[in-house]
Amino acid sequence: MLVRDGMIAAIGAGVADDATDTDTDTEVIDGGGGVLLPGFVDMHTHLREPGREDTETIASGSAAAALGGYTAVFAMANTDPVADSVVVTDHVHAVGRQVGLVDVHPVGAVTVGLGGTQLAEMGTMAAGTAGVRMFSDDGKCVHDPLVMRRALEYARGLDVLIAQHAEEPRLTVGAVAHEGPTAARLGLTGWPRSAEESIVARDAILARDAGGRVHICHASTAGTVEILKWARAQGISISAEVTPHHLLLDDSRLETYDAVNKVNPPLREASDCRALREALAEGVIDCVATDHAPHAAQEKCCEFANARPGMLGLQTALPIVVETMVTPGLLDWRGVARVMSERPAQITRLPDQGRPIAVGEPANLTIVDPETSWVVRGDELASRSANTPYEEMTMTATVVATVLRGRITARDGHAAVPADGMETL
Ligand SMILES: NC(=O)N[C@@H](CC(=O)O)C(=O)O
Ligand SMILES: [Zn+2]
Predict the structure, then answer these.
(1) Which member of 83, 193, 330, 406 lies 3.0 to 4.6 Å from 3 by CB, making a disulfide possible if both were Cys?
(2) Which residues of the sequence carry a binding annotation for Zn(2+) 1 (predicted)?
(3) pLDDT, tens digit, for every residue of 79-136?
(4) Residue 94 Cα, ligand 1 centroid: separation in angstroms?
């Protein structure tokens, strides 16, 4: 493949020889017989800047994304200050561009300060230079049904997406783990499946009547899959993501009380993992999103009940999708391209991501070696935090290179130096 001016210029054997006559500054990537995929798009990343740069910055998170094979990420709004104004969303966007390792799309908050009562100025954020196209109070649920209805009505008019963290807060008071036999035995307060499912069902119905598009963040239960099937059958505009950790891990991980496994929604039961995998294979769940959630060591080493929920995800997503979906034959590599790149780009209406690999298309690409294994070590990841539940686990499949508009952003485990000599990595 020959890439020129950020676009795919030619495909086929021998095109590298064509390049040498006319092109100066040519770089050759030897894919080594790997798999060439469109660059991944993550609909759910927490970059922590502004406010918690000790745990992640836009630069360090962008490096983790590039190393994970991503060319675009959506940065959630639960920063400090909250991304509930155009000042913050345009700032995040500008820093993302300056870093230049991945397209950083800020997510705008649905409500002011994530407070759940007063709608944020969605239209102003959508009209800013960041062109915000997704709104979410993620970390918190837009719980008030009237607020959610109004948000969906505005979303329809603006042609943007509302991404819901589906959690009925009255059902999760004090909850720290999936409500089931494991939590009961360990003495942990349970987060029932119904807390998620009741909101998913409600929001499907609100979206039906308001005509807006709703997206379900981190679907975690078999029941959510059934509701999505029903809603789809009604023609409701609803999409959903699943995280790598909800595909792979179940609540048996909690036996050690290690808070690295604490996450919202919680790790569920093996039967939920199976249902989520099947739903992803069938397209009932549209895509994989990481919910990359960096936290400082001191926020994770305390008692399980007091630890912050969330885990790293950007650099381990691909091998987990391979392990849970490709190896058992639930998805082929075309399917991986669909769930990691094409569907997230379609849902968020990104024009130049998740495109077919063809002449004239933007060169947003990921080259994957599906055979090579590596061992996860939190302190070797690009993130400023190390809260990975996969410490010392062997992962198979590595990202050989990531290419953003023709520029190599990661190669053989090294991220490119951010543009403008930024030193925040
Ligand atoms: N998933 C989590 O457990 N935590 C996320 C918030 C969220 O995605 O709900 C975070 O911001 O830390
Ligand atoms: Zn969430």
Answers:
(1) 406
(2) 44, 46, 138, 291
(3) 999 999 999 999 999 999 999 999 999 999 999 999 999 999 999 999 999 999 999 9
(4) 24
In a domain, 33, yes or no: no
Residue 78 CB–ligand 1 contact under 6 Å: yes
Residue 291 appears among annotated catalytic residues: yes
Q: Annotation-wise, does 414 bind a ligand?
A: no
Domain count, the chain: 1
- Ligand number with the minimum distance to the CA of 165: 2
Q: Say if residue 332 carries a ligand binding annotation.
A: no
Looking from the CA of residue 165, the nearest atom of ligand 1 is 9
Does the beta carbon of 313 lie inside 6 Å of ligand 1? no
Inside any domain, residue 409: no
From the CB of 388, is ligand 1 less than 6 Å away?
no
What is the domain range of residue 181? Answer: 38-358
Average pLDDT (279-306) is: 97
For the chain, what is the mean pLDDT?
Answer: 95
Report which secondary-structure segment, H or E, holds 141. none
Task: Look at ligand 1, atom 6, and give the residue with the nearest C-alpha.
Answer: 139
List the catalytic residue out of 291, 332, 412, 420: 291
**407, part of any domain:** no
Contact 228, 206 (CB under 8 A): no
Q: Is 46 in the pocket of ligand 1 (CB under 6 A)?
A: yes
Ligand nearest to the CA of 76: 1
The set of residues, in sequence order, having a beta carbon less than 8 Å from that of 35 and lying 6+ positions away, is: 333, 367, 368, 369, 370
pLDDT digits (tens, 9 = 90+) for 185-207: 999 999 999 999 999 999 999 99
SS3 59: helix
Distance CA 103, CA 421 (A): 18
pLDDT tens per residue across span 24-64: 667 777 777 899 999 999 999 999 999 999 999 999 999 99
Q: How far apart are CA 227 and CA 244, in angstroms?
A: 21
CATH of the domain at 295: 3.20.20.140
Which tokens go with 397?
């499949």
